Amino acid sequence: MRQLLLIICMTLVIISCGSNKNNQKELELKEKELALKERELALKEKGMQQVDNGKLITENVAGKVQLGWTVKEVRTAVNPMLLSRTRDGEGVALIAVILNDQQAQGLSKDEKMVMTLYADEEDAQAPINENARISNIEVWDKTYKTEKGIHVGMLLKDVESIYGKVKEILRSEIESREYATFSNQPEGISFRVNYDAGKYSNGQNTSTVYNEGATIYSISIFKNPD
């Protein structure tokens, strides 16, 4: 009889311990979910509060530069920043918007670059055409943000908390540039991500999975052809 009572008591203790462990796990899971929601809310609020209208990125404007403007109009708008001829890795003629020497004190050459503009120019050796119109703007400066606070250097996992899950990461075949598309991102805005951001398999150039630490490399807006 005593043995039976002992067995029953031990069984009750084991059940109780198991129940406590399950309750503890459920509590820890709820705490993690709450912490994640609080982080998402904090990111959204931080992004909304810190967007400077002078450095806002929308589908039509990046800071003080608007799609469709002439180079001459841009030069006036961005002053005292400067415009200079540059090109991308494929030799496409671009225009760099850079900080002047006084603004760029203590910054590296890359940090001086605010954005690059494409104005449908064909010759990267030719002087900048002041009458050419801007059809693409690529932003490199992390202080420029979308309306919801997305900026260069931001982790993709943090972008997902604002624009939804990554739908696709696409790697270009020529220069292996990578671009991420989010489920709820605004139209007319493109997000380039750092090299080796995506996890690809079987020689594919598309993926929905990215590496830990993957970030936004640049943000582009573009004028759709009429």
Describe this structure in words.
Helices cover 31% and strands 24% of the residues. It is α+β, with helices and mostly antiparallel strands and 226 residues long. The chain has 2 domains: 1-50; 53-222, protein yfey like fold (Sandwich), CATH 2.60.460. The strands form 3 sheets. It has a 9-stranded antiparallel β-sheet. Strand 10 and strand 11 form a beta hairpin. The relative contact order is 0.13. The mean pLDDT is 87.
Compact summary:
The protein has 226 residues and is an alpha+beta fold. It has helices at 2-50, 71-78, 109-112, 156-163; strands at 56-57, 61-62, 65-66, 82-87, 93-98, 113-118, 136-139, 145-146, 166-171, 178-182, 189-193, 206-207, 216-222. It has 2 domains: 1-50; 53-222, protein yfey like domain (protein yfey like fold), CATH 2.60.460.
Task: Label this structure with key terms.
alpha+beta, protein yfey like fold, 2 domains, two-stranded parallel ribbon
- What does the average pLDDT come to? 87
How large is the radius of gyration?
25 Å
Topology order in helix (H) and strand (E) letters: HEEEHEEHEEEHEEEEE
Give a quick account of the main beta sheet: strands, pairing sense, barrel closure: 9 strands, antiparallel
Instruction: Identify low-pLDDT runs.
Output: none
What's the tally of helices? 4
Structural shape: globular
Strand content: 15-25%
Q: What percent of residues adopt helix (DSSP H or I)?
A: 25-40%
Q: In the CATH classification, which architecture of the largest domain applies?
A: Sandwich
CATH class of the largest domain: Mainly Beta
Strand order of the largest sheet: 4-5-6-7-13-11-10-9-12
Distance between the termini: 91 Å
State the CATH topology of the largest domain. protein yfey like fold
Annotation, overall tally of beta strands: 13
CATH homologous superfamily heading of the largest domain? protein yfey like domain
Structural class: alpha+beta
The tally of structural domains comes to 2
